[in-house]
Each structure stands twice: as structure tokens, then as C-alpha cells.
């Protein structure tokens, strides 16, 4: 069985948030941190993993990602702070 992940990244500089979905969280965060995929996150240095949740099906993960993307910034911040009040980079232990 494969897991899917909905995740939120933040920039260290100005607090920009990015919400994404993947089936390999470690690989995807590595790509963000090393700017391997051109686009929003590499341009704005959004690479600090501050929140993630696991889904069992890709459809559920995509629905959840779209739901979170539709939220206000205030609601996203509340979600992050409930799970990660210190805004630690949850990927610092990964190689």
C-alpha cells in the first residue's frame, strides 16, 4: 500500500506558504530544498516543511490539497500552529 502526503512549506524569509501533494515526501522535500524543480518554491525559497498529513488514496490527497489551498492564510496558519507551534523544519533530520 502506498501513502500520499499533503504538505505545507514556508519560506524562512517572508513567510510565504506553499501547499503540495506527493507520494514520496522525503524525495519531494529534497527537490524543493535543492531547487531541482524550477517554479514558485525555488524562485521564492519556500523550502521549510512545516506541516504534512498522510492520505491512503491519491484522490483524497488531491481533494485535501485543494481544500487547504482554498483556505485563508489565517486558517492555514492555525493548522500549522496546531501541529507545529514552534514552526520547526520537520525535514531537518532527513538526509
What would a concise description of this structure say?
This protein is of the alpha+beta class. It is built from four helices and three strands; from the N terminus they run ββααβαα.
Work out the helicity level.
25-40%
Number of helices: 4
Number of strands: 3
- CATH topology heading: GIY-YIG endonuclease
CATH level 1 name: Alpha Beta
Structural class: alpha+beta
Q: How many strands, which pairing sense, and closed or not: the largest β-sheet?
A: 3 strands, antiparallel
Apparent shape: globular
Question: How is this structure best described in words?
Answer:
The protein has 95 residues and is of the alpha+beta class. It has a single domain (4-83), classed as GIY-YIG endonuclease (3-Layer(aba) Sandwich), CATH 3.40.1440. Helices cover 38% and strands 25% of the residues. The chain is built from four helices and three strands, in the order ββααβαα. The protein has a three-stranded antiparallel sheet. The longest helix has 12 residues, at 58-69. The chain starts with a strand and ends in a 12-residue tail after the last helix.
For this entry, give a set of tags:
alpha+beta, 95 residues, 3 strands, three-stranded antiparallel beta sheet, GIY-YIG endonuclease, globular
Amino acid at each position: 500500500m502506498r501513502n500520499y502526503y499533503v504538505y505545507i512549506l514556508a519560506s524562512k524569509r517572508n513567510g510565504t506558504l506553499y501547499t503540495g501533494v506527493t507520494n514520496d515526501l522525503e524525495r519531494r522535500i529534497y527537490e524543493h530544498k535543492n531547487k531541482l524543480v524550477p517554479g514558485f518554491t525555488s524562485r521564492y525559497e519556500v523550502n521549510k516543511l512545516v506541516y504534512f498529513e498522510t492520505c491512503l488514496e491519491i484522490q483524497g490527497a488531491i481533494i485535501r490539497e485543494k481544500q487547504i489551498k482554498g483556505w485563508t492564510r489565517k486558517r492555514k496558519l492555525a493548522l500549522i500552529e496546531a501541529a507545529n507551534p514552534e514552526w520547526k523544519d520537520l525535514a531537518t533530520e532527513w538526509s
